[in-house]
Design goal:
By secondary structure, the chain is mostly helical. The chain is built from 16 helices and two strands. It has helices at about 1-25, 30-40, 45, 50-95, 100-130, 135-165, 175-195, 220-235, 235-245, 260-285, 290-310, 335-350, 350-360, 370-375, 380-395, 405-420, and strands at about 315-325, 330-335. Strands 1-2 form a two-stranded antiparallel ribbon. The two termini are about 40 Å apart.
Length: about 425
């Protein structure tokens, strides 16, 4: 009974950390709208905050896996939280009247990215281990992902409401959200430091090979890390460019829909809310339905949704309720029907992260800890895919840029159907 209680404490703490990851990471999307106005930069430059945040995964992924083995899961998480506090504080400082520096903001986003990478390296394998691996491990990861999506929904809507008129947006408008992030970091650091968290056994046997490179002998793992690289292009690409399109003025260099930032953020927030719903459903059925089945089905559906979103008539509008940041009131607005299908993509991306991770580490045994670090390194794919989609948007338009999302989803479908099958000989 005591051991079972300890496990539930560990699970709850991992859920809280999962929520923190989303809150800080998803600050980058509305902050891109803010920095674009405050520093008068292009779509590509505005996405450099996202780029800096996710390139940190490239730098810190493997070291995070090594830290797990050296100082343990709990201490790695505590170190990550301290680093994250510094990163978010620098983002806050970048908006000071005496500073006003886009480069300070980018530095803060980069340092915050170190934190997110380290926390991801902790929570995914720990939840998978606490669930016993397999379908049960995937089930816990999906429930953790639901906490992640809830935090993403809150921060997207909150910052959009705070900004209001994008033409007058500044970093100081987002200060309440930054203060919340700093407060959550401080609170969770204290709680986690006092909590007793059981450490998953690493089961390292030196005579069985190099645990740093051993994971690469598994074909399904190699294809899996590419899948997670491209997955970020789907998960982040959809809400980011829905938000950019809706909130960008119609007379901008890359024309948008010209909607109030608060309403646009509410719509983007619905995407993350749908991810929450999808992850709750995925968690509920995860003990019976395999990751392969879930991911292959939803990858197919998201491709269909994005194609409908791109080719649906722009003159056909649907009503939606949003929060108008400039007036602080609820209002009804109309958006192109295609945007609705792009937002519905949140239902599909919901279980992909946990499902891909679960399939990629299947059968890795003692290599799981370092594999998690390698896996996190590939999250920098978000930086690459956001750069590519931003470049396509600048060269064409926002809607055309969603071809990048279609390509990424097509590979994920291939991985779920074929690439994820474990090579028994390995």
């Amino acid at each position: 009974m005591a051991q079972q209680k300890k496990q539930w404490v560990a699970i709850i703490m991992m859920f809280l950390l999962f929520a923190m990851i989303a809150f800080v990471t998803n600050l980058c999307n509305p902050m891109a709208v803010i920095t674009k106005n405050q520093f008068h930069i292009s779509n590509f430059q505005a996405q450099l905050g996202n780029t800096a945040n996710f390139i940190a995964y490239l730098v810190m992924g493997i070291p995070s896996g090594l830290l797990l083995k050296k100082i343990g899961y709990k201490n790695t998480a505590l170190l990550a939280i301290a680093i994250g506090f510094v990163g978010v504080f620098l983002e806050y400082v970048s908006g000071w009247d005496s500073v006003q520096s886009f480069w300070v903001y980018l530095l803060g986003a980069f340092i915050a990215g170190f934190c997110m990478c380290m926390l991801n390296t902790v929570v995914n394998p720990m939840l998978n281990t606490l669930g016993g691996g397999g379908n049960k491990g995937n089930q816990l990861i999906q429930f953790g992902g639901a906490c992640n999506s809830f935090a993403a929904t809150i921060v997207t809507i909150l910052v959009g409401a705070l900004v209001g008129d994008t033409a007058k947006a500044s970093i100081s408008d987002a200060n309440p959200a930054l203060f919340i992030a700093l407060g959550v970091f401080a609170l969770v650091f204290v709680v986690l430091a006092l909590a007793k968290i059981p450490e998953p056994a690493t089961n390292v046997v030196k005579s069985e090979g190099n645990t740093t490179t051993g994971a690469f002998k598994y074909r399904h793992f190699n294809l899996g890390i590419l899948a997670i690289f491209l997955y970020l292009g789907v998960e982040v690409g959809l809400p980011t460019y829905v938000l950019q399109y809706l909130s960008t003025p119609t007379n901008a260099a890359t024309p948008g829909f010209g909607m109030d930032a608060g309403i646009a953020a509410t719509i983007a927030g619905v995407y993350w809310l749908l991810m929450l719903v999808g992850r709750l459903v995925g968690g509920a059925i995860g003990g019976k339905v395999s990751s392969r089945t879930q991911v292959s089905f939803l990858a197919s559906v998201v491709i269909v949704f994005v194609l409908i979103g791109m080719f649906a008539p722009t003159g056909v509008h649907v009503p939606i309720i949003g929060f108008e940041g400039s007036s602080g009131t609820l209002t009804t607005a109309k958006v192109p029907v295609g945007i609705l299908f792009l937002v519905l993509g949140g239902l599909c991306t919901s279980v992909m992260w946990g499902g891909i991770f679960n399939m990629a580490v299947e059968g890795l045994g003692k290599y799981t800890a370092i594999a998690s670090g390698i896996f996190m390194t590939m999250v920098f794919g978000c930086a690459v895919m956001m750069f590519i989609q931003a470049s396509v948007a600048d060269a064409t338009d926002y809607i055309t840029s969603f071809w990048v999302v279609v390509f990424c989803a097509a590979y994920i479908l291939f991985y779920a159907l074929i690439g994820s099958r474990v090579n028994k000989r390995a």
